[in-house]
Amino acid sequence: MKRPQIILVAAGLCLIIGTASRAQMGMNLFKKPAITDIFRPVVGSGAVYETEQNQTKSTMEMTVVGEEAVDGKEAFWLEFGHGDQKTGAMTYGKMLVTKDDFQFHRMIFQQPGRPPVEMPMNPAMRQKSRIDDEMEKWHKVGTEMITVPAGSFLCDHWTKDDGKGDVWASSKVSPMSMVKEVTPSNSMVLIKVITDAKDHITGTPTKIDPEMMKRQMMEQMQKQQNPH
Question: 186-195: per-residue pLDDT in tens?
Answer without folding.
Answer: 899 999 999 9
